[in-house]
Every structure is written in structure tokens, then in C-alpha cells.
Amino acid sequence: MMEQIILAGFGGQGILSMGKFIAYAGLEEGKNVSWLPSYGPEMRGGTANCNVIVAEEEVGSPIIGKASVLIVMNQPSLEKFESVVEDGGIIIYDSSLVPVKPAREDIKAFGIPATTMAYELGNATFAGIILLGKLLGETNVVSEENFEKALTKILPPKKHFLIPEEMKALAMGRDY
Q: Taking a C-beta distance cutoff of 8 angstroms, is the pair 94, 73 a contact?
């Protein structure tokens, strides 16, 4: 099993953190992982993306040639990375922010109004977690239990009170 995941959007949307959560959860499961961030010089509003590989076998390179999954949080990212998804792959996108859905017929596409849902939950930062919930639901790349352990390890202790709500957001995305 090897999932090659590209996450992309604008800086400030939590793209790099989303990738870290998946990578750390993979480590919790004893899998081999790679996390490769890429971002523009801007603090917020510039481009941000990361490659995450979670595999049973060794990971030879952090660079992804063909992604099994693409998660996007803006239209420019969909336009840039849609062609990199392998035939039969998955695209998960925030339909609140991506007005034009993927054009390809050879992939599974899931539009989730994650930003709208996150605002309804009272925390805009949950949008990425909602999208990751769909990733876990469609691929079983990591378990929800290990995802929660990853949140505990990555988030500073002062943010741990948010974890139950983040797990609720994860479940919303999984079930959407």
C-alpha cells in the first residue's frame, strides 16, 4: 500500500499542517512516510503545497510524479495539479473555494463545502480537517485513532482543548 498525496492551496489555510497530521499519523501506525513542503515567500496568501507519501514499503523519494490523491483548497491549485493525479485517483476539493469542479472523467472527485462547514462549527481552521476526514474515509491511509494521536503530538498543549472538535470535523468530512 502506498498513498501519494498532494495537498495544495494558499498560505495560511493550514496546508502544511494538514500534511504533517497525515505523516505523523502514518508514523504512529509504523508506516514509512515522507513530508515535503513547498511554499512561496509570502507569509499568507502565497502558494503552499506539500507532498505526503504513506507506505508499507520504503519510500525512495519524497517527490511525487503521479499522485493517488489530490486535496485542494483553491482554484489555482486544482488547475496546477489536476493533471498529476493518476488514472483512477481521487481529488478532494473545498467546493466553498473552488468554483469549477475537476474536468477529468477518469478520477473520483469529491467536492465538500469545507470552509462553509468549518464556519458553521465556529472555527475556520477546521476546513482542512474536514477535507482530511474525506481522505481517511476514502483511502483508510491512516486510522482516526492514530490521526488523533498525531494531533496530540503536533498541536501545542494549549490547543489540545480543540482536539474533540477537530475529531468531530474529521467525522463530518468522512461522512459527507
A: yes
- Whether this model's pTM surpasses 0.90: yes
Q: Which amino acid, one-letter code, is at 100?
A: V
Reduced to 3 states (helix: H, G, I; strand: E, B; else coil), residue 123 is: coil
48-72 pLDDT, tens digit per residue, is: 999 999 999 999 899 999 999 999 9
- Quote the Cα angle for 64-14-159, to 5°: 130
Grid cell digits, residue 53: 507519501
Rounded Cα distance between 42 and 166, Å, is 27
Query: Among candidates 150, 133, 53, 40, which has minimal Cα distance to 94?
Result: 133
Place of cell 472555527: 123
- Give dist(CA 139, CA 97) in Å, integer: 23
pLDDT tens readout for residues 126-152: 999 999 999 999 999 999 999 999 999
2-10 β-sheet, strand order: 32-39, 47-55, 2-10, 67-72, 85-94, 108-112
Q: Which three cell numbers, joined as nine digits, stand for 100?
A: 469549477
**Distance separating alpha carbons of residues 6 and 57, to the nearest angstrom:** 19
